[in-house]
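Data card: per-record layout.
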Amino acid sequence: MCEAAHGLRVGVWGHEHPHAPAYVESLRHLDEVETVLTWESPPSAASPDPRVVHSGRSLAATLRRRELDLLVVCASAAASPRVCTAALSASVPVLAEKPIARRPATLLRLLQLSERTATPLGVAYAGRFQPHVHDARRLVREGVLGPLALAELRMLASQVRDRDPGHWLFRSAAAGGGVLTWLGCHLLDLLEHVGGDPIESVAAEVATRSGEPIDVEDVASLSLRLESGALAAVEVGYVLAGAGAGYLARDAYEISGALHGARGQLAWSGRGAPDRLRVQRGAHVEELRYAPDRAPGYAGEAGMRFLRACLAAAVARTPMPATGRDALRVAQIVAAAYRSARTGRRIPIQGDR
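The structure for this 353-residue chain is written out next.
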């Protein structure tokens, strides 16, 4: 992998996004980054990090002057396409928070702009850099599972009432969807990224069970058929009681998964990021354990590794570690899931990989 240059200038757009402050925190701890530019209120004197700078110019003016090596876009699904279009049109590489757009057709236009201008567009699937994901993907490719038969993925998160029900994340017009677009997207991406078996069709149920005044789903259950004929189940929901307020607390998530094949099994679990991977080869079982990730910022050390890879791609003008095409693929699956929930039918996944 190409190493990122030093002295880089990175913008973080979107202070109303729950992850924006965490991206600033991660970026200011990376040696490659000289300046983190923001457009929110100027940093207080209590945190006078000279590398975090409040922009005195509009985003449009900054983009015209080609002052950024990378723009991290933390905006709602409704607002993100406009910001991404402006950056890509100015040949500024973009790392955008999922889902990037409310509809796959809008995301496709962004992808086409990225390819036409030869400007990298990435999506924030930092979970690909978690150690259990890295090891599981490697083991699948080494043939530990043999032909895949069944996959089970689950992510449970703190309840809606602990996540500010008035936030735009819980308004369909701004967010484009609920827990499926915010958290379920990670599981859908990882299923194909780790398992290497594309999703062919989906039957889905979604519901709103929190009792809060929101107009998006807060629980979702998906039954998936993969191209090989294997089956998969994905469950996601804002259901953990007593997990505490906020989006990034370690105890705000329970994550588990398993891949079952003809020759073996991989299974992982943990509060926050999974801390163990159970590997079964025939009758032989071993367990890989991972130290708690205490690094600051978004997704901890895994997030920093992900951002380093994004910076390297931005400098080299090569594909991001999770690309706009990956984002489009997940958007197509999510759109099919919502259609299935509306119609009660199994829906094939449309679009080229």
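Known properties of this structure: The mean pLDDT is 93. The chain has two domains: 8-126+304-323, 130-292+331-348.

See the next section for split statistics.
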